[in-house]
Structure formats: structure tokens, C-alpha cells
Specification:
2 copies of one chain form a homodimer. In chain A, strand 4 and strand 5 form a beta hairpin. In chain A, the strands form 3 sheets. In chain A, strands 1-2-3-6-7-10-11-12 form an 8-stranded parallel barrel, surrounded by 7 helices. Chain A is of the alpha/beta class. Chain A is globular, with a radius of gyration of 19 Å. The first copy, chain A, contains 14 helices and 12 strands. Chain A has one domain: TIM Barrel, CATH 3.20.20.70. At the A-B interface, helix 3, helix 4, helix 5, helix 6 and strand 4 of A face helix 3, helix 4, helix 5, helix 6 and strand 4 of B.
Chain lengths: ~300, ~300
Amino acid sequence: MKELLNKIKQMNNPTVAGLDPVLSYIPSYILEKAEKEYGKTFKAAAEAILEFNKGLMDALSDIVPAVKPQSAYYEMYGLEGVRAYYETIKYAKEKGFYVIADGKRNDIGSTSDAYATAYLGKTQLFGDQGRAFEPDSLTVNPYLGSDGILPFVKRCEEFDKGIFVLVKTSNPSSGELQDLVVDGEEIYVKVAKLVNQWGESTVNETGYSAVGAVVGATYPEQSKKLRAIMPKTVFLVPGYGAQGGTAKDIAHLFDKDGMGAVVNSSRGIMCAYQKAGAPGEAFCEFARKEAIRMKEDITSAI
Amino acid sequence: MKELLNKIKQMNNPTVAGLDPVLSYIPSYILEKAEKEYGKTFKAAAEAILEFNKGLMDALSDIVPAVKPQSAYYEMYGLEGVRAYYETIKYAKEKGFYVIADGKRNDIGSTSDAYATAYLGKTQLFGDQGRAFEPDSLTVNPYLGSDGILPFVKRCEEFDKGIFVLVKTSNPSSGELQDLVVDGEEIYVKVAKLVNQWGESTVNETGYSAVGAVVGATYPEQSKKLRAIMPKTVFLVPGYGAQGGTAKDIAHLFDKDGMGAVVNSSRGIMCAYQKAGAPGEAFCEFARKEAIRMKEDITSAI
């Protein structure tokens, strides 16, 4: 998490570009080339996704500190899609991005340990070790309680990695469980307090822990409350832009140094050329423009 | 879900074999062969896993109706591991098993839709369609509420698939969030009522819906209560055997026809040869013996 905060400081830009490559977001010249070469196949989809993602990362690497590939959009293209996920993470690291793997993984202790190995640790291989996937951090779901989270925290400590625990999500129905009130406190507050506990041992000289929280931009009242409860927690904030959250809705999530939160935009950046009615060939230029606009929108509000 | 219930009836065996292939569970002769051919690599691990899984499935296919590969244990071997997951599902279908992909996936609506496509639906490919992974059902996490679950339910209806929603999990810390009491009802009861709602439109002539529930064998008092709340829900029951749940703990989860639940054993079956101190070459024989013992243990208790 220290690396993320450093990059944010260097670039003066607390944002992350979500890489959720639905085929309909990808310029037609890329899709046509892939289809021509590989047919109507998962391989063609994966190649198109990779070309699109690499173009975006090339256009953003000097202004945006982090990327967040969302696993579902790769898994839906099968093995080839997962290969594109792996290659996207690898390319992002080569370009210097901090990489948040958005998988929302969760399970009982022994199985969470396997997920933690897959994304944050090292896999034992016949006496040697290998890294299955190489992101810097992973999003995780807290519904199974501490023993489903602590294996991830252990890897954060051992390999200087991070996690972001779902606390208050950005979607319309997030309140069905998260807003239920127990002894005067909402479930999301209970989870926030657990996040503090889970992260306590990992707080470093930045003042922040390795255990972050996912807090949606779409619920400003709740996120204000969560900021007060979790002063040492980095917030990963989805819901800005396409989902309706504004810079004003999230300004209070930052500390006095403009640190402590990273705001995601996926469609806003990926589809900027479509929104502008520009040709597909200009997707990099428009992604960059939107990333700069977003940076200015957010930094001027905080 | 109808197919699962039919298979359980035909075989008179309400159990599922979990395929969580940690390398230390795999006989050394298989590991040595894979290492010799492919070195200390993910490829070697994947080949060993596949040989082990295929041996288990060959030994069990006439007595056990379903298998449940757990995604984490494959993802930890990277792309090669995910290939082994894909091949395991494919082989299981060829052998006639009902396949429960245990991924505990979850996200906001649009992203849940991508996961639902990946595991239960069909992916759009340049005007054609393809199936990314081909299980019959998927485990999912409810923390994000209805809009994270309904895309899965839609695929259940469209493609005759099923899901199992985490309600009360088998792990020691499951109560930290799941047992919190809201207006006199535990969170797991709230989730159970949502499961009823989500499944209502999918109840068919079996009397059961396509939306199942994960209910741990390790909490018999809670599961008894959940059976009463969810009369039309098939329970996927982890925690039998290695985690401490007994046949007595789960007998009340079945209806008068012995239907309505499927009990998982992973380590118990996979590691039966180790527990007996038998040579690795006998792993199939001991897995089969344990599967038969488990079947008799459970069917005699219900």
C-alpha cells in the first residue's frame, strides 16, 4: 500500500483506471483485426482485449498511478480470457503501474490461504516457488469473517502486498445487507471496525495499513462516517463517473495531504472516445484526456 | 438443480466429492512423474492435478452424483492451474457428474453479469457464442445484495443452471457477521429469506428452486432453523468429516424423501489413502471406499 501512496504523491493523482474490457468498449478496427486473424473465438477476444488494454496503459502510464483489471471480464472469455488477465497484470507492472486485481475473492481459512497464495504470495512447486498472478493487491469479500481474511493479511505482511475489503459497495442494493443495523451500528460499520483490527499490525510510516476498504462514491453520507471510523485505511472508491458519484461526493474521503483514497474510473476512461463520438483510432487520446480531466476534477475538489 | 436431484435419487447418494487438489494430497508417484516430465513448473503441477482428479472421478462416477472443484486450488497454479480447472470440469461432465464450480463469485450488477456469463451462460463472440467454463452451478456470495445475485438467477432460468448462495458457512469465524442479530433475526436468516425471494420464480416440479444455499455441517442448530425457513432450497453442506460435522449433525437437513441437501467431502475422500497409511498407488481404491462409507453413514442417518 506504501507503493500506491508513493505513486499517488509523485503523480499528484489519486485515481485508478479500471480495465473492464467488454468487447463493445473496444474500437472496431481492433476487433476486426482480431476476428480476421483468429476467427470468432475466445483467442480473438483475448487478443483484442490485450491490444486495447496495452494501448490504454501506454496512454496513461505517466499520469495515472494504478490500474484495476476486473477478473469477471476476463473469466468470461475462458482460458484465453484468463491469459489476457495475466498478461494485462504483467504489462501493467512493466509500465510501472500499481496493480489492484479486482477479484473479490473469499472463502474459509484454508481456501482463502490458497487464494492469498495465488494473488499475493508464492506457490510451492516441487521445492521451488513460483508466482501464479503478480498484482500488488486484491479485493476481498468479508462475509466469512476473520479466518477468511487473515491468510490474506499474512501475505500482505510477508510480501509487502495489500488487500481492499468490501465495506460499503457502490451498487443500488448494497444496503440490503450492509445497511442493516445491529445494536445501533450498521453492518458496514461492523465490517469497518474489523478492517481496523485486521490492518492494525500492518500500519507503517505512511500512517496507513495494508488492509484497505472498498467504499462506494455513490453513498457520500456513509463514506463520511467510514472515513472517521477508519483513519488508517486506504479507501478504494468505485462509483465515480458512470455510476453517478461526483468529485464533491468523494472530497471528504481524503486526508489533509490529499492521501488516503484512490478513486476508480472504468467506463469513463475506456469509453471516452465513444462518448465524444470520436473514431476508434483515437481511443488512447480520449482516454488520456479523460484521465487528466478526472485528475483535475478530483484534485481541485480535495 | 433438477439434474442434481435426479442423480442423487438414482444413486441414492446425497453427496458431492470436493476436488481441492493441494499437491501434498497427490500421491508421490504422480508428482514425480510430472516433475520428471515438466520440471518444477506450474505445468507439472497442473498435469499432476489432472491425473489425480481423473483417477478420483473414474473411481467415483458410478457412486457419487456430483463433484465440486474449488477454484482457489487451481488459481494458485496460475494459467496452467486454471487450465486444469477447465479440464477437470470438462472431464467431470464427460463422466456424467453434476458439476458445482466453487468460486464464491460476487460483484455489482454489471460485473456479476460477466461472472454469470463466464460460469452459467454463453459469451457473445463476434456474433457467435461460446461457453467459457461449463459447470452446472456456481457458489456465490450475497454481501452486495440483490443486484449482485439476480444476473446469476437470470442465467439459471435461461440455461437451466443453479447457484448456491453463502448463507451460514462452516468456518469458525462465520458468526462474526453472519450471526449478528438485526430486529431479532440473524444476518444468516435475513440472507435465507433473500434466497427464498431470489429463487421463487425458479421453483419447478421437484419442489425446489434453482437458487441453493451453502449451509455448514458444523452448525447444526443454525442449519435446523434454516431448513425450516428455506423449504424449497437445496442445501450444499460443507464441513462434514475433516471439518468436524457428523451424519447426525446433518440428518435434519433432508426432507422425508431424503432430498433437499448434498453433503460435500473433499479431504476425506481425496486423502483417504493417506489416512489409511496405504501406498499412493491405491488412492482410487481408498477414495471409493470412503465415498461408499460416507454414503452409508449419511443415508442411514436420514
